[in-house]
Amino acid sequence: MTEAQHALGPLAGRVALVTGASSGLGRATAVALAQAGADVALLARGRHDLEQVAAEVERAGRRELVLVADLADAQALTGAVARVVEALGRVDVLVNAAGTDVPAPVAELAVQDFDRVVAVNLRAPFVLAKAAFPHMRSAGGARSSMSPRWPASAAGRMPAPTAPASSA
User: Which tens digits make up the pLDDT trace of 17-39?
Assistant: First the structure.
């Protein structure tokens, strides 16, 4: 990193992809990455909230890319990574901050609800990592990949009777 890049922030010249970027931990992480100098691709289901976060990224002087996608759709996720590389030139940081749950006792939980929780919380981080890591390696190595929901969520550490999908 050049001295000029460091003056722009420790992540100047880097590109981050953040899921769940429309609210909560994802939003806060996306804004913090922008303030640290990274350009940020924002991925979530709600365009309106993503555009508000995009404005915060722009106020930090960084480029942003709004990506509206359902994390349960693996094809949309691989397409999202391709769009990040096309629009922002690279992927250096992957933050899987999105997560979902369908609170219900096992006897009342529908199989399709269980499948959605697994698709969003477990399969989506895998699909995104699989799509992003080749780009991250070619850019000089991965900076970060995390998934705060699985298995690091409280339900993943201590099974809850009304969160069987997150406890799997």
Answer: 999 999 999 999 999 999 999 99
Burial bucket for residue 127 (CB in 10 Å: 0-12, 13-18, 19+): buried
Question: Mean pLDDT across the stretch 63-76?
Answer: 98
- First-residue to last-residue Cα distance in the chain: 42
Pairing verdict, β 15-19 and 39-44: parallel
pTM for the structure as a whole: 0.83
**Class assignment of domain 11-151+159-167?**
alpha beta
Rg (CA), the chain: 16
CA contacts within 13 A on the Cβ side of 9: 16
The answer to whether 65 and 38 are in contact (CB under 8 A) is: no
